[in-house]
Amino acid sequence: MIVVLGDLMLDIVLQVKSPALEASHGLARAAVGPGGSAANFAVWAARLGAEVGLIACVGADLLGQSLLHNLDQEGVRSGVTVTEGTTGLTLALVDERGKRTMLAARGANSALNVDDLDHTLLDRADLLHVTAFSFIEECPRRAALTAMRYVKQRGRLLSLDPSAHGYVQCMGPETFLAMVPEVDILFPNLDEGRVLTGEQQPERVVRALLRRFPVVALKMGVHGAMAGNGETIVHHPGFDVPAVDATGAGDAFAAAFVLSWLARHDLAAALEQGNRTAAGVVQVAGAQCARAVPLDS
Fold first, then answer.
1. Handedness of CA 85, 86, 87, 91 (dihedral sign)
2. Which residues of 72-104 are buried (b: 16+ CB within 10 A; e: fewer)?
3. I need a surface site. Which of 119, 132, 180, 186 has the fewest CB within 10 A?
4. Residues of 145-162 as b/e, b for ≥16 C-beta within 10 angstroms?
5. Phi, psi for 171 (deg, rounded to 5)
6. Which DSSP symbol is given to 182?
């Protein structure tokens, strides 16, 4: 079983033709749907055939009820706590090239605490995937790190998405890395990898991170992805598709990579599956709106 811990949000994606001018009005196309980095990973893993559980937190409001219903419809087992307050909300402004500006009101995600951890899910986890948005605030950070230690003590696997290079930069790369020494698979994007290592070239970033982590999968957007384990490094250029909205593409990539890697331990195959799934996501607005492409056997 794959267990995921992190954010569960409602996403509002506004596609704009040009940057909005201050104190002006503009037109946009809107897409509204379920999101949150951890929830996106969980949904895509479930769509690709895995048994999945999600540990997260939503508010006792209409949005929270809707997101819980969506998880049920997607076949994700809920370890979600309902708390007072509002459900998290993300606003994504997407330009004509698919580039995003993200604004997040974390809401109930900030309230996840150690007592909310669903140990019935954690006891069944073959792999726990954590998104580091949960590290931003003290309460969910304690919950995430406690869950990670619990799973590792049982000899299971950990994967981690650093989630936000600005946060890693503010915390300091050594402080961040010191919190997560037992992670088995790391999923940075190129900006995060550069902050964590001080290197600029993708292969040098991967090699530097491999000194700390057994498997590294570096997400590089339109340039595909690069992954390594031990001395082996593989690059996949990605797929040339029209980019509408990149929201959730990295989460979908990570979900497909994990499932393929666990099944075959083949870096090239895992990269291709990750990029193929992410390519479907970027062609539509919304993190969970694309159709799933079955993984190769």
1. negative
2. eebebbbbbbbbebbbbbbebbbeeebeeeeeb
3. 119
4. bebbebbbeeebbbbbbb
5. -70, -35
6. T
Q: Phi and psi for 172 in degrees, rounded to 5?
A: 100, 130
Tokens coding 42: 């969980």
Q: What is the 3-state secondary structure (H, E, C) of 63-90?
A: HHHHHHHHHHHHCCEEEEEEECCCCEEE
Q: What is the 3-state secondary structure (H, E, C) of 276-294?
A: HHHHHHHCCCCCCCCCCCC
- CA 1 – CA 8 distance, rounded (Å): 19
Q: Which long-range contacts (CB under 8 A, 24 or more apart) does 289-292 make?
A: 289/31, 289/33, 290/252, 292/44, 292/47, 292/48
The domains found in the chain, sorted by start residue, are 2-8+35-88+107-282 (3.40.1190.20)
Question: Nearest Cα to 104, choosing from 114, 92, 96?
Answer: 92
Half-sphere exposure of 255 (CA within 13 A, CB side): 36
3 state DSSP class of 53: strand
Reported as a single tens digit per residue, the pLDDT across 234-284 is 999 999 998 877 888 999 999 999 999 999 999 999 999 999 999 998 888
Residue 5 corresponds to which tokens in the numbers above? 């811990």
| Angstrom distance (rounded) from CA 52 to CA 87 | 22
Nearest C-alpha neighbor of 238 from the set 206, 193, 282: 282
| pLDDT tens figures, 21-78 | 556 677 778 888 899 999 999 999 999 999 999 999 999 999 999 999 999 999 999 9
Query: 33 phi and psi, to 5 degrees?
Result: -170, 175
Question: What are the Cα distances from residue 265, in Å, to 200, 258, 271?
Answer: 27, 9, 11
